[in-house]
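Today's session is about reading a structure prediction critically. Students often jump straight to the picture, but the first step is always the sequence itself: look for stretches that repeat, for charged clusters, for runs of hydrophobic residues. Only then move on to the predicted structure, which in these notes is written as discrete structure tokens rather than atom positions. Here is the chain we will use throughout the hour.
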Amino acid sequence: MVQQLTSCEFQDFGECLHKWFFGSTTAFYDMHEDLQLPWWFGALCFSFSFAGCMMLVTEPKWSVDNLLSFPYRTFACILIFIQGPLSFMADYVNMTHDSVFHVIDRSVAIPMLTLEVFKICAMFQYGRTWTMVIYASLCAFAIYCFLKSQLSLAESHGDGFIFWHSLWHVYPLFVSVLFTIDIFYLGQDLSKYPVSAMNNSHNLDAPLLSTLLMGKGDSEHSKGNLRSRTNKSPDL
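Below is the predicted structure for this chain, in token form.
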């Protein structure tokens, strides 16, 4: 009996998950008059694009030096050119319509959220402890807001959906502000960086000995040519 109930529960869960993931409509389908989305709700959809731009502006040293196997710049470009526009089309333009954008948006958002969690875990190795704790807390709260928005969506509660989903879209803005302060105001914390990486960075910045010697040789050669020309020049 217990096994049958468990099997039915898993089957119902699978069906609900399949319906949610591949559904081209939402609970607000054909409710144009009941659901009035404000303009700022649509603007917040592009918070992902803004966050991607800020990721490139505030790129940390561990990404520049390839210390972690994380596709930092690719992740940022997907946020800019794919996730932001998809969110706008699915959550704002087509919220009350039957559209394939709902399926595409979920297909991209789930892997991107997974990458975001992986990025947080990876950055704990080199980031400031308090910065990473705030970052992880913001991510956890954002996921909570997303789940609350989905609950409001299932109940066809428009105001609740707008409130909680707006907080979900504000998350990238908070993270952008956090890392702008961390990198530009406080300066990057290099205390956790490996000595080898720091040495390599210094070596790349310093001129090579061979370059200095060649430059010195060229300078002496130029001076010698100048003297010979001076000696050979006729007196006026």
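Discussion point for the tutorial: The radius of gyration is 28 Å.
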